[in-house]
Amino acid sequence: MYSSTMNQGPVPGGLLVVIEGIDGAGKTTLANGLGERFRSAGIPVNVSKEPTRGPWGSVLRASAADGRLTPEEELRYLLLDRKQHVQELINPALFRDEVVILDRYYPSNVAYQGAAGLDVDEILASNSFAPEPDLTLLLDLEPVEGLRRIHARGDKPNHFETVDALEACRAIFLTMNLPSRVVVDATKSAQDVLVSSLHHILVAATVKANKQLGFGIEAAEAVRAIGAAMPALS
Q: Which parts of 10-132 are beta strand (E)?
């Protein structure tokens, strides 16, 4: 257990919130919206994305358009990128008791490389070094709608972004054993998704605060601080 007196955030050990889902589900919109909510409430928050802009993530981003890497190569670079991400951003922020919001994390690794033919259990095992999320928000919608959104924003679909590929990814997301996962209806408006997600985060923060601090005043204060990100949600 981390000391709450030495760090900045409201929940000891921080709060790791992961946003997952197929392409076009609205992950980046939600991540940015949550970050704005927490910053406006004065809560230390880190919003990040995988693959990162680091050396390994840049290789993956450069190859996404044409699919030059094999699934095995993608897995290798994703693991290298994630290890650097954990060491340089995720773990230090959690040690400071801050909120970390990730736009994709290892569940995407499992879903996409699993859909490409790699063994799902082996991918999960290879990510054992990565901290477990306190909450995984799975934004769920039909692949056809995801692709419609991708085209509507003027983006060119990459080699992952076909109906068949996204159907396979979606199936893995929905069957993956993630104890912290909640499924959010991504067909709703961005505001509705934000409101729903904030409520799920408050529940996750309550569970963690009670676990770390016990059912007392300190835990209640930690939850109240997180709840400050939730006013005027109508």
A: 15-20, 45-49, 99-103
Per-residue pLDDT of 142-198, as tens digits, reads 999 999 998 888 777 666 778 899 999 999 999 998 889 999 999 999 999 999 999
Q: Which residues pair with 15 in a beta bridge?
A: 99
Q: Which domains are assigned to the chain?
A: 15-227 (3.40.50.300)
Q: How far apart are CA 192 and CA 184, in angstroms?
A: 10
Residues 6+ apart with CB under 8 A from 31: 19, 47, 49, 101, 102, 103
Write the burial class of residue 15 (CB in 10 Å: 0-12 exposed, 13-18 middle, 19+ buried).
buried
Q: Kindly state the tokens that stand for 49.
A: 């994305």
pTM above threshold 0.85: yes
Give the count of alpha carbons within 13 A of 155, CB side only: 14
Residue 117 CB partners (closer than 8 Å, separation 6+):
71
Q: What angle do CA 76, 81, 87 make, to 5 degrees?
A: 130
Chain-centroid distance, C-alpha 136: 6
